Amino acid sequence: MTEANSRSITTNQQGLHEKLDEIVTKHLQAEFKKPIAAHTQRAFDEVNERVQAFDGPVILDSCCGVGESTANLAKLHPDALIIGIDKSSHRLEKHDVEYKQAEQGQYILVQADLNDFWRLALAANWQPTHHYLLYPNPWPKAKHIQRRWHGSAVFPYIIKLGGQLELRSNWDIYVKEFARALALSGISTQVEAYESDEAITPFERKYWASGQSSTRLVVKL
Ligand SMILES: C[S@@+](CC[C@H](N)C(=O)[O-])C[C@H]1O[C@@H](n2cnc3c(N)ncnc32)[C@H](O)[C@@H]1O
Question: For this UniProt entry, which residues form the secretion signal (predicted)?
Fold first, then answer.
């Protein structure tokens, strides 16, 4: 289990990044042409077969880490197939040992880079009903804005994939920036504080145990 002494976010940003609008607008107008990595293509092809054969709602749990949230979401949405995606094999390998839940619901964990996976999912016409993005890496240094999902070239594909998107972070500016990036795409949404009696991911549990709070947005794309 993760320890309960998570340091709070340290950033040299006071508010939204000064270049946010410029960066997001550039990405909204350009196609993301970087070639797809072979390992993500293979991982996608495998899971795509299962998704195409599945007759029910498909839900994405992007940046799923050890997949605890994926298993929790499968319990919450028993009629759906939940796809948890993370690039870290180290995290995914911990799933069966430490984070497997009761045999309820159906889910698949995939090791893949989301910069490629989201583009493949869109090209294969996936239409997730829900898309969870829980505690993505915040990249709080201003110079790393393009590593945040809303500052990355793949951002327009998150929007095009559609469904009800839920983003949670322990850094409120991340969520506010994401909301601004959505606004630049013509989608308005509310940012709100989020708390619950039960954490559904290890990072969420760790942040709350060390006195940090969560901010989220939920939006129908
Ligand atoms: C802060 S952790 C949160 C994990 C989990 N959602 C949780 O709350 O416990 C962020 C996760 O994003 C994953 N990640 C970062 N960049 C990624 C990428 N390009 N593709 C897939 N996963 C990525 C990392 O491997 C890491 O597991």
Answer: none
